Amino acid sequence: MMRSYFLVCITFVLLSSFKVHGALISFNDYTRDSESNVVTGGGLQWMKWDVTTGLSINQALETYEGWSLASNDQMNGLFSHWFGLTQSNELTRAVKYDANIIDDTTYVGFFNLFGISDNRSVGQTITSAFYGSDKDQNGIYNVASIRLTYAIGASSSSTKSGISQLFPADWYSTSDSVVTYGVALVRDIPVQNMESSVSVSEPSLIVLLGIGILALMIRRKKN
Ligand SMILES: [Ca+2]
Q1: Membrane spanning segments where (predicted)?
Q2: How far is the CA of 69 from the centre of ligand 1 (A)?
Q3: CA of 53 to the centre of ligand 1 (A)
């Protein structure tokens, strides 16, 4: 009886400590714990784009306290790091088309980290998010979009080609929402973040140790 209770305790502790630590998804200097919606990279944290799918900029900012809309510069930084793209002006549409995409794995890596906001398009893989600084102050913002012209996992390689683009420039208001677009939310990397992955597991370890000692004591008493 005591032994089965002990086993249940151990299992519970082990399960709860595993829940905190999922696998670390890492690509192109960006990382995300598989249990988390937060991507860390380029000196920033990004909310996965599919978390805010269908929300307007206003709704996303209301829902996620402490987060702000990614600026033009921040989105430019992300796109130039991942895809070698820059958009210098709010009103300029930066488009790059790769008829023979060199490296699909970069796209797939991005989707794995940032999620796929568009699960409606068949035969292609798209993720999109609102962002912008509204430098021309007309109340209209931008959307970034990354698209593979085939579905991830598709076996046909003959049609493989990729497009990545920021489009259209200066197009959506803060109350507009699109069922296949997310909102690019960013925040500074929390100071305690570096230590949290270590400190979170400590209480579980202590509990585990305590249970172990308790089990030993019980065993000793029986003997
Ligand atoms: Ca604008």
Answers
A1: 200-218
A2: 13
A3: 21
Q: What is the rounded average pLDDT of the residues 91-95? A: 62
Question: Which residues have beta carbons under 5 A from ligand 1 (an ion)?
Answer: 134, 136, 138, 140, 170
What pLDDT shows up at residue 154? 59
Predicted model pTM: 0.73
Q: What is the pLDDT of residues 142-184, one digit of tens each?
A: 888 888 776 666 555 545 555 555 556 788 999 999 999 999 9
**DSSP codes joined into one string, the chain:** -HHHHHHHHHHHHHHHHHHH--PEEEETTEEEETT-SEEEETTEEEE-GGGGTT--HHHHHHHSTT-EEPPHHHHHHHHHHHHS----STT---EEEETT-S-HHHHHHHHHHH--SB-S-TTSEEEEEEE---TT-SSEEEEEEEEESS-TT----TT--EEEEE-SSS-EETT---TT-EE-EEEPPPTTHHHHHHHTHHHHHHHHHHHHHHHHHHHHHH-
- Rounded to the nearest angstrom, the distance between the alpha carbon of 50 and the centre of ligand 1 is 23
Q: Residue 132 Cα, ligand 1 centroid: separation in angstroms?
A: 8
| Mean pLDDT across the chain | 79
Report CA(139)–ligand 1 centroid distance (Å): 5
